[in-house]
Specification:
Layout: E1 9-18, E2 21-31, E3 36-40, H1 47-54, E4 62-67, E5 70-72, H2 77-82, E6 85-88, H3 100-104, E7 111-112, E8 115-116, H4 118-131, H5 147-158, E9 165-169, H6 177-192, E10 196-200, H7 204-210, E11 213-218, E12 221-227, H8 232-240, E13 258-266, E14 273-278, E15 282-287, H9 293-300, E16 308-313, E17 316-318, H10 323-328, E18 331-334, H11 338-342, H12 349-354, E19 364-365, E20 368-369, H13 371-385, H14 401-411, E21 419-423, H15 431-446, E22 450-454, H16 458-464, E23 467-472, E24 475-481, H17 487-494, H18 499-504, E25 511-512, E26 515-516
Parallel strand pairs: 3-10, 3-11, 6-9, 9-10, 15-22, 15-23, 18-21, 21-22
Antiparallel strand pairs: 1-2, 1-4, 4-5, 7-8, 11-12, 13-14, 13-16, 16-17, 19-20, 23-24, 25-26
Helix pairs in contact: 13-14, 14-15
Length: about 525
């Protein structure tokens, strides 16, 4: 093999064993300079173990790693870094109380006569941010910045020095559409600069948008390396090991009477919002980060104060007085942040599934819990949504993101609620789990429930929703039928344009799902 053909990185038959577990089993892949190589797999597929090995955090039990054709053995993260491999993990490593400049140069602060040189610090930090075209004030404390800016700081920090390989673990999982597109643009720029990039994502549209090749792992084993333009359904099938007829299931169903409506609703985040959802409908609410879309669910559930306007549930006037009252009236809300708002992570799965329903569904009387009835009820939910592992006494924090999300969603199945409001229900979960969530939404709609799908994922809005409201600065700026809903239409409304203005001016170019719109 000539030096031109030699991969920048080659992973050859790497295995990693733990007591009683084989986390990686004979996995191979290679990475070329100037390539984005997507690493794809369900939670537990072995992706995290592989990147920890490449980052020098763990050592392989067997197999080899080669850089430019030469075998390397990393004994620490520092050695991997010195070799030019930089990893940006999903959990950021920034110190929230330090400034942007201090975080960027932490551990390598420039000194003059033993003292930190603020002039050199600012110059080096400014150069690091300029490399990725990030315009972030250097003297601002990191904790005051949005997650999108913190993500860019983490990437800029990783690229300091002679970086040759960049590993990005779910970099857009907590970002909105506009912030995600900016980050994808940075990835394209770094690829053009000749970096080799390993990119982990659960957002299917990103694969075709920036990827060159995709390596799929399943249960710790290598499945295939394919082109990034392969159909999404084929990728899901490789990931899950089972055929997927449709990524977005849609059964035939009839639409009934209006079960949920907002009329001129005003809150601290909403301005004169009107919307309605009928029985058997899945209605989307889309918008950029900060558009106010999440407040639609939070106000209805009594988590944000309703200042003025009217809400109706199943034909009756409704004034939110808190979650218990909302559930009693037949409205269930599923929060976007499952770890903060959805689960008690230190308690077992069993308790998380029955949380909030013990008395109302007959699982407790006179202050005493009927553990047998609770276990039977929870087991039914575990089976219905295929929560794995099906250990009721396993702490929620030990479940994968997808199974944590299923636990949050299954809680609503204990109650016969007519209206279900989902706030970003698939954020940060793998594609196999997403399909299970979509099937749940389709099933509830077929049962005649009214569903609101608040989402940052344009693909699922287009694929799942019968109608979609688009929000900008707390207002509804568009209502699109299923036939009208497209990436172009959604993005045009994101910036608050009227239909006339959309025809008179060019829409901003965003690369979504591999197409420009």
């Amino acid at each position: 093999m000539s030096s031109v053909d030699t991969p920048l990185l080659a992973v050859e038959s790497v295995t990693r064993r733990f007591p009683g577990v084989v986390a990686l089993d004979n996995v191979s892949l290679d990475l070329l300079a100037g390539e984005v190589h997507v690493l794809l797999g369900e939670n537990g597929a072995g992706k995290s173990t592989l990147i920890k090995i490449l980052a020098g955090v763990q050592a392989p039990s067997s197999g080899s790693i080669r850089l430019d054709g030469r075998e390397v053995h990393f004994r620490s993260a520092g050695e991997a870094r010195d070799a030019g491999i930089r990893t940006v993990f999903q959990e950021l490593s920034l110190v929230p109380t330090l400034t942007v400049a201090e975080n960027l140069l932490l551990g390598r602060l420039p000194r003059t006569w033993g003292l930190v040189s603020m002039r050199k610090l600012r110059a080096a930090a400014g150069q690091a941010l300029a490399r990725i075209d990030a315009n972030i004030p250097l003297d601002v404390v990191v904790s005051s910045l949005p997650r999108s800016s913190q993500q860019l700081i983490e990437i800029a920090k990783g690229l300091l020095g002679e970086a040759r390989i960049l590993i990005l673990d779910e970099p857009t999982s907590s970002l909105g559409t506009r912030e995600s597109e900016k980050l994808l643009g940075i990835v394209r720029k770094l690829r053009a600069d000749g970096l080799g990039i390993i990119y982990i994502t659960h957002r299917m549209h990103e694969i075709a948008a920036i990827g060159d090749r995709v390596t799929v792992l399943r249960d710790g084993a290598f499945i295939a390396t394919v082109g990034a333009q392969l159909e999404h359904e084929k990728l899901v099938e490789l990931m899950t090991g089972r055929p997927v007829e449709k990524l977005f299931p849609r059964s035939e169903r009839s639409v009934g009477e209006t079960l949920f409506s907002l009329d001129d609703v005003v809150s601290s985040q909403l301005a004169n919002v009107d919307l309605e959802v009928r029985a058997g409908e899945i209605v989307g609410v889309a918008g950029l980060l900060g558009s106010g879309k999440s407040s639609v669910g939070r106000v209805a559930f009594g988590l944000e104060k309703l200042v003025s306007g009217n809400i109706r549930l199943a034909g009756s006037a409704y004034r939110p007085r808190g979650p218990r009252n909302a559930i009693a009236r037949g409205l269930m809300y599923y929060p976007a942040d499952r770890k903060v708002d959805g689960l008690v992570l230190v308690r077992p799965l069993l308790e998380n599934l029955s949380l909030g329903s013990l008395i109302d569904v007959g699982l407790a009387r006179f202050g005493l819990i009927n553990r047998r009835a609770e276990s039977l009820s929870a087991s039914g939910l575990v089976d219905a949504l295929d929560i794995r592992p099906a250990h009721l006494w396993r702490r929620a924090e030990l479940l994968s993101g997808g199974n944590q999300q299923k636990a949050v969603l299954s809680r609503g199945l204990l109650r016969d609620c007519a209206v279900h409001v989902f706030d970003d229900p698939t954020v940060g979960i793998d594609v196999g789990a997403k399909v299970d969530v979509y099937r749940l939404l389709d099933r509830l709609a077929c049962e005649g429930k009214a569903l609101v799908l608040i989402s940052s994922d344009l693909g699922e809005v287009i694929g799942m929703c019968d109608r979609t409201y688009v929000m900008h600065e707390g207002r509804i700026v568009g209502e699109l039928s299923r036939a009208e809903t497209s990436e172009e239409a959604l993005v045009s409304h994101f910036f608050g344009k009227s239909k006339a203005e959309q025809h008179d001016s060019a829409s901003p170019v965003l690369v979504l799902g591999g197409t420009e719109s």
